[in-house]
Amino acid sequence: MFEKWSSSALLASVIFTGFAAPVRAQEPARVKIGTFDSRAVIIAYVNSPQSAPERQALMEDKRLGPSRQHLMHQQAFSNASIVNIVPKFKDKLPEIAARRGVVMIASRWEVPYADPAIETVDVTSDIVELFKPTEKARKWIAQLEKVEPIPLQDVAYDPAH
Question: What's the pLDDT at 66?
């Protein structure tokens, strides 16, 4: 009887302890988020045909013109938010996200931390191309990769410019 029980126990232990094909846990899919350099986007926008009416109004507005000019300097040379121009391209973000396989898109300066399990995908050029910037602007944008943003508090306000 012991022999029968031993054989059955041995068979059961072989099946349940790993001699059968091991089942591996699947690794969870990595989450991908798209990030962009907001400096490049504001430079592309300001140097595009879409911004021409806004630039003209800026020049004529004696009250708000200087502060808007300062804001654009903070955006182009530092890492100030570009939330004021996001509505101009927001409707295109789902298409960019789908094409690039990301679940969200944010300014790289607005993502101070991401878990190593998060994969970031640079979508800057996708957004820049929406504005069809001038060749001059494209050269400025290419140079951004070589320089860090100026600290926001160091972008001087000069109402004369």
Answer: 81
